[in-house]
Hints:
There is one protein chain. By secondary structure, the protein is α/β, with parallel strands linked by helices. It has two domains: 2-150 and 293-345, Medium-chain alcohol dehydrogenases, catalytic domain (Quinone Oxidoreductase, Chain A, domain 1, Alpha-Beta Complex), CATH 3.90.180; 153-288, Rossmann fold, CATH 3.40.50. The protein contains 13 helices and 17 strands. The strands form four sheets. Strands 3, 4, 5, 8, 9, 16 and 17 form a seven-stranded mixed beta sheet that branches. The protein has a six-stranded parallel beta sheet with strand order 12-11-10-13-14-15, with helices on both faces. α10 links the parallel β14 (257-265) and β15 (286-288). The longest helix is centred in the middle third of the chain and has 11 residues, at 151-161. The radius of gyration is 20 Å and the shape is globular. Nicotinamide-adenine-dinucleotide binds next to α1, α5, α6 and α9.
Amino acid sequence: MKALTYRGPGRRLWAEVPDPAPTDPEDAIVRVDAATICGTDLHILHGDVPEVAEGRILGHEAVGTVVETGPGVRTVAAGDRVLVSCISACGRCASCREAAYGQCTGGGGWILGHLVDGTQAEFVRTPFADNSLHRLPAGITDEAALMLADILPTSFEVGVRNGRVGPGDTVVVVGAGPVGLATIATARLYSPARIIAVDLAESRRKAAGRAGADSALSPDDVERAAADGLGRDGRGADVAIEAVGLPETFELCTRLVRPGGRVANVGVHGRSATLHLEDLWIRNLTITTGLVDTSSTPLLLDMLAAGRLSTGDLVTHRFGLDEMQDGYDVFADPARTGALKVAFFRT
Ligand code: NAD
Ligand code: ZN
């Protein structure tokens, strides 16, 4: 088969590789019908993430059709149309029993495309298939389902639920990339009074408006709005969700929330933010962080099927699977291309 392979920092190649086969009784082989690229793939590709072997197949977001299952797989069978979760976990260990799949100690907890081969290929081996594959209802398109492989559970679990977004809240989402936009979409499930998006890029602020933000501001403008009084009683936002991954945006979040407010960090930080505990403690702030678990995927799928959740127009560019190289160029340069999510489809 063909697959997009890692060839050392910054180098990738769509190349012929051996077809995957089950190596464990709980494996399934999935024919990839659609796949996307995530910012994390760029981190892996650039060599920022340790332990990526040369030849590793990249990618952790896909929708496909099961073609083969090991003898231990019970919940999916050949022919099933499935969503492949970005995290593959055993489902049985102490962490998995708490739905913390990202912390699995039973031999999983991987993001596909890092220590095991990923989804940017014609076929993918999915370990712990019962826990990592989700059968798709007929009414959900491949393109909508793709958004549930990573960015919707990430934003919902690490942003919205950790930040305890509630009815009537004022919610600020800093960063309106795919993850920030998915945060806006999933925050709305809890009926906040208002959602304010913050981004440096005007194109991303416009996308935030389309995703359902009530207003979209630059970082300077949101600081001015905060000085004038944000939220129900002017004391600040109830929740600020960081979806960039920079010290300055994390620190901005801590300034925007009211006393007793919540800051939910979603961004992956390469440089450390300074936690000004001398200021944060006296304002009773709650700060949370986390890696996506994907334990919310069945619930999000139900809401998508019921029409309660929209994945909006996150996919801006579509290619064939064999055009993966070109798709990466488009995705890696959003200022030039206007890309949000770039999706690949089997033709
Ligand atoms: P992205 O790069 O597409 O989006 C980031 C956005 O932040 C961009 O729109 C950019 O214009 C904006 N931005 C940059 N600097 C800014 C600043 N100073 N002020 C305001 N806006 C600024 O990234 P994404 O794919 O949406 O992902 C967002 C973050 O979430 C990344 O750090 C990613 O690694 C992380 N992530 C975390 C998890 C998790 O499990 N916690 C999972 C997936 C992604
Ligand atoms: Zn991802």
